[in-house]
Automatic annotation (TrEMBL):
Domain of life, per lineage: Eukaryota
HAMAP family per record: RimP
Keywords: Cytoplasm, Ribosome biogenesis
Annotated protein name in UniProt: Ribosome maturation factor RimP N-terminal domain-containing protein
């Protein structure tokens, strides 16, 4: 049996349900691994989940300058032979700020996004506080300063005085910003929030999180169809049953053939991806029938359209 050990730096801050847990001077944890669980490799595999880059902008004390801290999460997945249960541990990279302090940030696993949820599905979601509309106005003013290169994909405020922003790059086909884009937006927005805190238009304890839309970003209908018409897309849609008036939900990986904004409908074909090719036999290409298959859907029947990645 092999052992994996992990140690926490004495200045690392640990949180559980947003509550600070005072760590001991040195914490070690050991996990037993049976080598038989990894027949092809003597060491466990590291899997990096598909999450958006995230940058935190926080005020330094006593100065009011933002500290940008990108965080990378690695997920260690291990399989137990006897019980066939998955054990997942998040391994956090410790990031050092200018004062020499380490800090760990935890990101909860997100539920499936929905269009307009203010998070992975894009759009705006306000908590209804006295300050969130002003915070949104400031964010929109900051995007103007980037001369049309960056835009707000999603904006969300939480009751715990947190602002979550997902920015997109408007000048490339993928819409994905770079880490430099995220840090630049974070810095400018944090500066403007500090000014608003100083004049009392927003509270003085605002936390800011800035990230990208994510690898599997939601496609907004119909405004994003032209922009992402060449992408393979995962589509969840409903169809009406004529006999009893009920509806049924379906999904698939499609490519956009065409769309008609006036008729509020679009036409799909099967995407040339593994999950579709395997339906005609392992190792075989799409069949002629699959290539000619078409699906017409009204805009209002589309429940979710997002990027599809085979990685």
């Amino acid at each position: 049996m092999n052992l994996i050990t992990s140690s926490c730096h004495s200045s690392t801050r640990l949180f559980c349900d947003n509550a600070l847990i005072p760590p001991p001077l040195r914490v070690s944890m050991a996990m037993g691994l049976k080598s038989a669980a990894f027949p092809f490799c003597p060491r466990p595999f590291l899997h990096i989940p598909r999450r958006p880059f995230i940058s935190f902008a926080k005020k330094k004390k006593p100065q009011a300058e933002p500290v940008i801290k990108p965080s990378i999460i690695e997920e260690l997945s291990m399989v137990d032979d006897e019980e066939d249960d998955g054990v997942e541990d998040d391994i956090f990279d410790e990031l050092v700020d200018d004062d020499g302090y380490f800090e760990d940030e935890y990101f909860a696993e997100e539920a499936e996004p929905s269009a307009g949820d203010g998070a992975g599905g894009g759009g705006i979601s306000l908590a209804g506080t006295l300050w969130d509309k002003r915070a949104l106005e400031i964010a929109e003013e900051v995007t103007v300063s980037f001369d049309g290169e960056l835009g707000i994909y999603a904006f969300k405020t939480l009751l715990n005085a947190t602002i979550q922003v997902r920015v997109e790059r408007l000048t490339n086909k993928s819409g994905s910003p770079t880490m430099a884009d995220i840090e630049a937006f974070s810095t400018r927005y944090r500066e403007r929030l500090d000014e608003a805190e100083a004049n009392g238009s927003i509270p003085g304890n605002i936390s800011l999180e800035v990230s990208s839309p994510g690898v599997e970003r939601v496609v907004r209908i119909p405004q994003d169809l032209e922009r992402f018409k060449d992408r393979n897309l995962y589509v969840k849609y409903v169809t009406e049953v004529v006999d009893n008036g009920s509806s049924s939900e379906h999904d698939g990986v499609f490519r956009l053939i065409s769309f008609d904004s006036d008729a509020s409908s679009c036409t799909w074909g099967l995407a040339d991806v593994r999950v579709n090719r395997e339906k005609s036999g392992k190792g075989r290409p799409l069949s002629k029938k699959q290539k000619e298959w078409r699906l017409n859907t009204p805009f209002d029947s589309l429940r979710l359209v997002r990027f599809y990645s085979e990685i």
